[in-house]
Write a structure and sequence with these properties.
Number of strands: 2
Helix content: over 70%
Order of helices and strands: HEEHHHHHHHHHHHH
Structural class: mainly alpha
Largest sheet: 2 strands, antiparallel
Strand content: under 5%
Oligomer: single chain
Length: about 325
Amino acid sequence: MSALQLSLLAIPAAALLSAGMTRAILPLLLKHALAKPNARSSHRIPTPQGGGIAVIGATMVVAGAIMTSVAVPDLRLPVALFGATLFIAAVGLADDVNSIAVLPRLVLQGLAVATILYAAPDDLRIVPACPLWIERVLTLLAGLWFVNLVNFMDGLDLMTVAEAVPVTGAVALLGWLGDAPASTMIIAAALFGALLGFAPFNRPVAKIFLGDVGSLPIGLLLGWCLLQLAWQQQFVAALLLPLYYLADATVTLLRRMARREAFWAAHRSHFYQRATDNNFTVSRVVGEVFALNVGLAVLAIASIRAPSVAVELVTLVAGLIAVALLLRRFSRGRAL
């Protein structure tokens, strides 16, 4: 079977494996990994965290099995990605069980991102005119931010699913259309399926959370998929796909820094969190975020499939307007 055919099978395979693993580990997590409500939480009772074990486990098993059965050129980078993903998942698990200080956590996360970039061939460039070392340092910082961005935004039932499913679905589709590498297509399809398998357990009111063991490696995998698009000069698509997360997290961070708040501490200042404080239900918030992300995915695919400066400009502006409108809506609230 071809890589394309196997990647299609990856979705149901990863979904079933993720659901089965989630169900299997749930009793253990109930005993040893309860997330207690804090200043950042949207839940009111202790809830088990660590569902990312199932999501990442299913993704790695299915994607790994497919890549070893098809002729994927140059496995060095995917192997580095798998190793970095497992490493950062272990860091997240340790943080879930016994909180790690901010600086050591960032150093370990940076090591995972750096491992991937070190394995990348020198001819994979975003801006060829820029010195390689400068580009890689900036990419490292961007990757570190993206890993934490996904973690920051994972504060509501199904929120990460609402973000990552449209992104991975779009990347997998681009792979099927020949616009993304085979390895990227396979991993995106496997993560897409794994998240679908986890979703029934995480829907409001969630029976289990991803935890840092899930949000951190998911951020790493999503960042890698977007980096693959950027390496192919598909900049607008790489920006559009995560645009809601980028906007919500970055604007929130800058506002907290401007107010001289402890921006690294738990809080409820994100736009999606403010929406729940402004009379939006959890289902309404994640539903609107999911719908927006599907729209952003369509725009991203259009920017690649109909390549021209005009199309890229129109899709980018449309995406920015859509995100800005939703952020404004979340911040203003709605009538009861």
